[in-house]
Amino acid sequence: MAKLELTDAYIRSLKVDKRTEITDLKETGLLLRVFPTGKKTFAFRMRGDLGKIQNVVIGAYPDVKLSAARADAAQLRTRVKSGEDVSSAAEKVRQASADQKNAAVPTLEEILVEYEIAFSSKRKTWERTEKGNSSEAERRIKAVFEMHLHRKITEITLTEVAHSMATYVPKSGKKSANGQVSRARSYLKPVFDWCAHANKSKQIGRGRPIRLNVIDLGKTYDPASDDPEITGRRYRALDHHELGRVLPLLYWPAPRCLKMKLHPDQDYRPAALRFLLLTCARREELVVMKWHDFKENTGLWHKPYVKTISGPPKQQSLPLSDAAIKLLKGLPNFDTRNPEDLVFPNATGGLLGNWGRITSAVQRESETSDWHRHDLRRTGSTIMKALGIASRTIDDILAHNATDEDEGVSTALKNYLVSVQLLGHIEDPQKVALDKWAEALEFIENSHRQ
Q: Which residue range(s) make up the domain with 418?
């Protein structure tokens, strides 16, 4: 057996008439096996403490570089010296790999079931409804990628997925399907990443138990990326003239001029829209708000679930402005509230709905148009910037930087400090910002009335 310090140039040029093994003098235990066919393979060989020869195939050259082979050999040598039987361990890995290849490859629909089981408790979009119906993510994916559901997930190609997105016709009758397709794509991408142990699922133990060779959905075109009609790319904010006409309509009882079917005393929606303005919250956060989420002693609104710019949903504790607290205390269900009751219920005590109808009525009576509920949130952030509020504080209010610690250590500490009266002289930047925003709204409304 030849012994020399291997180099890439030497390995590339090496040709043999019979199987040859060459020991690397630079890395103990590393050897190169060369075959007449031109195949070249790195391996590791070393005698263990008990005298047993340890053999492990590292990989074929040039798929495995010389530097990588030396690093693997060094690691294997350390394991042998610690008493490990690396030959047996390598055989187990090889067998597991063979078992994986022989295992039945699941269909896309079967993978969706697996993913739901793994993540429905962690991701709101994968939670089934209270009636047990499909989650938001599952419905979107199945609508756009219906033709692939019963195919083996490893057989689905990027070209086929791109074609499904490009040719999808929305059942809603909308002119464009870009928003629906983009959302379905965003829900399906982490599923494929989970299967492939890619991106955020690349950490050991975070991906699917058995890795699958599937496509990278990130290489497909997102139709929402350059569509200005997609909500996520809107830049609409109401100006002071529009706010001056809209604000007088956002009260409880609901103004009779809105001509809603509900009795004004039963219609919480106008007041809810004002609360959205005051807090810059999302509609889905407000709809599920219960009285126990309003911490009256500290003036906080605890949100058990908020979306973030990236990553899984988080929690948030938002300091409310004096105006927002006054609004809550002025609601007819405040004095009779039960901790589990919704703050803004519908006429039967359930989730508030028919937002399109109330928005249209407010737009009609205020002679405004082309704004959505989410635009109220954007209006708040835009005007707070104009008022000189720090961008970091605005991001905190919008929950763009929400973390798991919001309801963990930091909130526990804040509650403690409040209880021992150590925060009485400290102003929360978010509270200051939202009070300033509420004052601006009050000024705009009063100026318009004059």
A: 234-449
pLDDT along the chain (450 residues), means of 10: 89 92 92 92 86 87 93 90 83 67 80 91 83 89 94 93 90 71 91 91 86 91 68 72 95 95 95 97 94 94 78 82 97 95 94 91 92 90 93 90 47 54 67 95 87
Tell me, yes or no, whether 173 and 27 share the same domain: no
- Taking every pair of Cα atoms in the chain, the longest distance, rounded to a whole number of angstroms, is 100
Integer CA distances (angstroms), 259 to 98, 254, 318, in order: 69, 9, 34
Same domain for 97 and 117? no
Question: How does strand 2-4 pair with strand 20-24?
Answer: parallel
- For residue 198 the two structure tokens come to 């890619």
Residue 347: helix, strand or coil by DSSP?
coil
Is 300 found in the same domain as 249? yes
Sheet containing 30-34, strands listed edge to edge, beginning at the edge strand earlier in sequence? 2-4, 20-24, 30-34, 40-47, 53-61
Residue 47 parent element (H or E): strand 40-47
Boundary (domain end) residue, out of 52, 68, 102: 102
Q: Report if residue 61 sits inside a domain.
A: yes
Residue 224 counted as domain residue? no
Q: Judge residue 318's burial from the number of C-beta atoms within 10 Å of its C-beta, 0-12 exposed, 13-18 middle, 19 or more buried.
A: buried
CB environment 229-258: b (16+ within 10 A), e (fewer)? ebeeeeeebbeeebbbbbbebbebebbeeb
Tokens of 206: 């975070």
